Amino acid sequence: MLVLKKSFYNQNTLKIAQELLGCFLVRKIHGKIIKAKITETEAYMGTDDLASHASKGRTPRAELMFDEAGKAYIYMIYGMYHCLNIVTEKKDFPAAVLIRGIKIENIEYKKTNGPGKLCKFLQIDRRLNGWDITKKDKLWIEQGIKIKKSQIVKNKRIGIDYAKHCKEYLWRFTLSC
What we know:
Blueprint: H1 6-9, H2 13-19, E1 24-29, E2 32-45, E3 72-77, E4 81-87, E5 95-105, E6 109-113, H3 115-121, E7 139-142, E8 152-155, E9 172-175
Antiparallel strand pairs: 1-2, 1-7, 2-5, 2-9, 3-4, 4-5, 5-6, 8-9
């Protein structure tokens, strides 16, 4: 399968969040490859998105969101879980897609949902913060199966009640099948 290139991530964040559905998040750990189909994403874009870390400007926490597209933006929530985001759009415009859910099908079927659970399972932590996911090493995303628009469910993002009107945005995308 083809590794997604920087040009893929250097597009509209809402488009990327939907096009990542059906793609494969790949993690190489101690020589072992784990491939997981992406089943749920959330989009965050611009300083006017009150749910985004970038809404407070170029803080140390959000600085990576202003970087070039195709980088892993990993942060901790609740003091115990990591979240994997992929930086999108042009440099200096803060945007990213949170990977919320995956499915892994090998010998036994395993479903992982929730950004913290998937990072724990795939051993993704702050050591990979800033990682170029367009290189086929440690962590990358490969082209996946083609998803029809009718297979995508749009919902409100989760856990952002503080974000005023932005909590109403239908920027969470889930595969219906």
